[in-house]
């Protein structure tokens, strides 16, 4: 029979066996067939000099667990200490020697001693695959003993805890049990029910994950419970140190545990181990290519035409190595080939893999399609595939046997970079060779660098010493112990750390443990104490541990312990600002240390950058996508935004890696966001808490909250169906629930009964409801803000308890005020809402306009948010006049202060708010007056009403003379000189403070003037005689009328009989207003405006011709000067027709002549425009001194008689010609258009009184020039008028045609 057929013949036995170690049936057969075993009738069976024991010595109910005739040598040797005593036991034996049966013996001992149902057994393995393997096996083996098993390897949920409470055997990992025991206050009874603690693969203590195992075991010991420890290890030289660490039992911890050690000769299958070292200074990728050339010869040497497994460090190396070996095998002659040809072809979907399986070669890694992986495993067991190239994950994932194991290199990716394999990984990979039920011999080959060969020789021979790794992350475990109460002070920390494996090994090998900041030459106890002091101080500086004498975790430290957050990540989460938005929270979480190993690969970068350009990315990266945090953020948002992955061939290369990384990200981020929620809830930061809850809900549901993607939570609704619903204005599950079955089927283009199935699914969708009311006013002390008692009622509208996707969801409730304060937060299962959940709490109201908002939603489902707003009816009088300062958490106050620093000016000052100003005003004590005198106390002498301990005395300003600086200049008088900082902690920007003054300062004479900002302060300044004295600040006295003071030299006298002039608003307005007002008044005057109050005599708007005297002067000609058809007609300016005030300074001659007409025209000449006329509007717009007054015409303007409106009567009454009036320096001059000749104004001066009618002139544009020729020419129509009048007007009026 060939090797292949022999190998296939035992396939059925392997498929029925899933144990990591050999099955008991095969072990007993192997032991009986061993040449060292004696099965003589007259003597007991012996093996390796050890008498073999039969399972028949056990009670009948336990024999079914061990269905074979004899235990092997290792099992027989350990039978008595495990089954006959309750001592802790440490067993060191080779892999595959049957150590699992020893754990089963320990379980039988507990069942026999305690009875069923009164105890818990914890089995702890380093990997999930080993836990799953043990779970399946023990569920069958111990079912007849009524021992139920529960596997805990995921995040803790209420359902898992329910299974733990019902199970007798708990199969878990160190990290999971660490999470359980960190909440031991909640599960105290559960932890104390543990009577047996089984530790498989205890040699992982040397691995980085071993620190968690060490902390968990030390915690179980510190709890003082009666727990028995049974630890199994591979062959290690210092198993005695493990025994010292565990102790004999819970009462004799100072004595070592019982220890049994077995060498390689006890291995059931002889394993030949070879370590080959190769020289090479190149990097690991180039070195891997070197090993490709060495690999075929090694396989040819050690294979014996039996199954082979080659472990490579990357997926790309796995595929390239498989292709290289297939090509090498095809070139060989049939008789020289290292493995036989496959008997039948294996069907796989991968084209690259399909080409290889024809040569009996395949590759296997996590990026391979699950169906292809299963096909490869099945073909390997059948013998159709003889060689598998795989990554290290296959060593612990699937139990595939082989004859030859080759480690092509000893490095692998961890935390984003290449590191050496851990001892556990190496032992797991080597353990794939030589299974007893498949083979009687095996070969293990390790290919590594020359400088590492000695290390691996010691490892495979069992000479590698176990060391502790607890010191690498001691600070996280110290925080958890302080949280549990195991450590209450520094002495307690020293006692705790002395009970760890770290303490045992540091005493044995102190030079191995080099800790930053700790002197390695000191005594071990002193070094451990210094480590504890340093880490506790770091926890206190980060506000994770209190500063009191009795150590205790703050709420932040409790959250860090509860969710197993790394110290660096916790500091990062605490840096989230107050009132943070969702984008800020997500951005900071993506930088957590928990994601360091998910580095961005070069082939992923272009796809991530394309994702960043998608409109469905809610918060795109604004910088170049290059870091791990960018990758985490984009992968999260691509899932929450429902972005479809590309379908091109290039993305197919990284598709599997994307899916794997996405699973890891969403598994780890849940702990981080829940930690943020707890921290922000403790800060009473309602805005950040609400945003964090929305983000957590989106991460669990994997779709954004408040988006139409919530429809895709329904199992039968995919992307296409969701788009159809959205197109029909159904963008939420709530709207979908309102549609009938036929409408759903029509929209989604489905046939019945699709609509009914959707409706049946939506019946179980949680439909929450929240209502609230104020049930009274809570008692408060005088002066405090009012408090009201609130009752909130939570329930659901479903007919029965909602169960969504097979799970009863959890519910969160929060109540906040509109000013951003969180007043209540509650978590619970939806089962508590079955009969309505009533929550009562009180709310402190800071102002009358504050409202209360209540929110409720399911933690894992988006689209379930319900809210209500509660308004109080308290009157404004119920609130204290001084705005109360609610004491906010320290962190939020700090963040607010930092945010407001940028609003202050460079001198550190800031405007006082109204509330602050009112508080200062009320804090003034009323002055005590001496009624015998009229003296008033100076306001400078008033003091604020503060407590005696906080009262500050005002310092008098003392003149400090200038001092010459080193640069020759003089110091200034600013308080910020000489490098002093401002109130805001910043350096000033005064140039004089840094460079100095050119001249020394002079002392100013003391002046005592009344200062103030009230409406009468400037009146006092006007009517007060100020006396300058050099004495102490004097008090001013008010002098009544006809009263004299003897010491008037020292008093400021005010005459109250005088009526002070009111101060205009421009003098009291803010600085910006005053500056603008001064700018306006510097250009034009600002005087009181007098507006006309009578109707005008005529108006152009009514369409009638004006009845003016000069229009009908000659009745014979019958002509009027109306140019309604002229394009050049313009209306006179409204300001020209407005009245003139009396106080206007006029030409003295015109004023004299106009006075003679005042009495006659007072009744006959009403004002030209009403109060609301256009003239007053123009006056207000241009801010003229008088709305009715027009200045003398500018030099650029000329007048003409083109408008046909001229007051001849008013002109005829003028006794003197304007050109004969004496010219003053203020008299304006008019330039002729064509000559530089200066001439007087052609426009008649305005009337002296508002009653006189104004002359009307045509307004000529600035560029309309009047030439001499034009002035000399007289139109023909002028001859129709009185020649004497025309001659008299020629010097003043231009006649145009």
From TrEMBL:
Q: Domain Helicase C-terminal: where?
A: 294-482
* Keyword match Ribosomal protein: no
Ranges for the region named Disordered are 1-37, 880-910, 1089-1171, 1211-1241
**Which keywords does UniProt give here?**
ATP-binding, Helicase, Hydrolase, Isomerase, Meiosis, Nucleotide-binding
The organism's place on the tree of life at top rank? Eukaryota
Q: Where is the signal peptide?
A: none
Q: Where do the Helicase ATP-binding domain residues begin and end?
A: 80-254
| Bias (Polar residues) | 1-33, 1213-1222
Q: Which SMART domains match?
A: DEXDc, HELICc, Sec63
Return the EC number.
5.6.2.4
CDD domains with a match to the protein in the record: SF2_C_Ski2 (cd18795)
Concerning InterPro entries, the annotation shows: DEAD/DEAH_box_helicase_dom, Helicase_ATP-bd, Helicase_C-like, Meiotic_Crossover_Helicase, P-loop_NTPase, Sec63-dom, WH-like_DNA-bd_sf, WH_MER3
Q: Does the keyword Translocase apply?
A: no
What GO terms in the biological process aspect are recorded for it?
Answer: reciprocal meiotic recombination
Pfam families tied to this protein: DEAD (PF00270), Helicase_C (PF00271), Sec63 (PF02889), WHD_SNRNP200 (PF23445)
**Principal EC category:** isomerase
Q: Which GO terms describe its molecular function?
A: 3'-5' DNA helicase activity; ATP binding; hydrolase activity; nucleic acid binding
**Catalyzed chemical reaction(s):** ATP + H2O = ADP + phosphate + H(+); Couples ATP hydrolysis with the unwinding of duplex DNA by translocating in the 3'-5' direction
Q: Which family does it belong to?
A: Belongs to the helicase family. SKI2 subfamily.
Its protein name is DNA 3'-5' helicase
From which lineage does this chain's organism come?
A: Eukaryota, Fungi, Dikarya, Ascomycota, Pezizomycotina
